[in-house]
Design goal:
It contains eight helices and ten strands. With 257 residues, it is α+β, with helices and mostly antiparallel strands. Bound molecules: adenosine-5'-triphosphate and magnesium ion. The site of magnesium ion has 3 residues, from loops.
């Protein structure tokens, strides 16, 4: 066998056997997310050297599954896989159509998902370059997004703030506002679904995730989305004991639409 093919084949096996090792509940998830195209996409990423082994699921959401992957050199990566069958195309269409970077005229669901994944990748790249604390984007292919794993060296993922509130909410909130200002003023994006579900607590540092729906400031819906995001933060952080209000945050962020 051609050595390249043999290597690819070995990886194929590895991905395959990893999947088979899981318990029955995991296998159920596996069956749902690993449709033919997803598997082919994962093999492609394995052959390109991005992932060697797929580990357990971190999260099984409505539209996407996030798993831990391990690279050839034993580093962890996060693998976000959008499920084609259960995605909300109306929502995707709504957030895609106002974005000058995407000119989507298709009704093809697969193409819409691929644009959605590309959008998340582009948004992450823009945020990362602007210095916002987000997972570093690695690559994307079809319905699969590979990003930096946020967690410890043993592969334990950082928890969303919702599940792991900060020890010092005031301090954490101030750090978050710095990130929000960079998000809006440097990356010139509005998150659109900012909440403690999409903010990870990495050793008391906020890491913002889940930016597929984030929009550029030029998008006509961006102002409304920022207002909603800020209202969510006020509500959630007030519950954690932080004294804050909408106007204070708005003035601090000082968005230029
Ligand atoms: N880079 C990462 N490192 C570690 N854990 C992550 C990473 N990205 C996501 N997660 C975990 O996976 C969960 C879901 O990720 P994310 O918010 O990006 O997906 P989602 O779009 O909310 O999925 P759905 O809407 O289908 O529930 C997060 O709450 C977090 O626990
Ligand atoms: Mg989320």
């Amino acid at each position: 066998m051609d050595p390249k093919v043999a290597k690819a084949d070995a990886k194929h096996q590895k991905l395959h056997s990893q999947k088979r090792k899981k318990d029955s509940s995991d296998r159920k998830t596996g069956n749902e997310i690993f449709d033919k195209i997803t598997l082919e996409t994962l093999y492609k990423l394995a052959n390109q050297g991005y992932i060697d082994i797929l580990n357990g699921a971190i999260s099984t959401g409505k539209e996407a599954n996030v798993l831990t992957g391990i690279t050839d050199n034993e580093k962890f990566v996060a693998v976000k896989i959008y499920r084609i069958a259960t995605s909300d195309f109306k929502k995707m269409d709504y957030y895609l159509k106002g974005d000058p970077r995407f000119n989507i005229k298709t009704k093809n669901k697969r193409k819409i998902i691929y644009s959605w994944v590309t959008k998340e990748f582009k948004n992450l790249t823009r945020l990362y370059q602007a210095g916002v604390n987000v997972p570093k984007p690695i690559t994307s292919a079809n319905n699969v997004l590979l990003i930096e794993f946020i967690g410890d060296d043993d592969g334990n993922p950082a928890q969303p703030v919702k599940n792991q509130p900060p020890k010092n909410p005031d301090e954490f909130f101030n750090k978050l506002l710095v990130q929000l200002k960079l998000f809006v003023n440097e990356a010139k994006l509005v998150h659109g679904d900012l909440s403690n579900y999409n903010i990870l607590n990495l050793n008391e540092e906020p890491v913002i995730i889940d930016v597929s729906q984030s929009v550029v400031l030029d998008n006509p819906i961006s102002k409304e989305l920022l207002e909603r995001d800020i209202n969510t933060l006020v509500r959630e952080y007030s519950k954690l004991g932080v004294k804050t209000n909408f106007d204070e945050i708005w003035e601090y962020v000082n968005p230029k639409f």
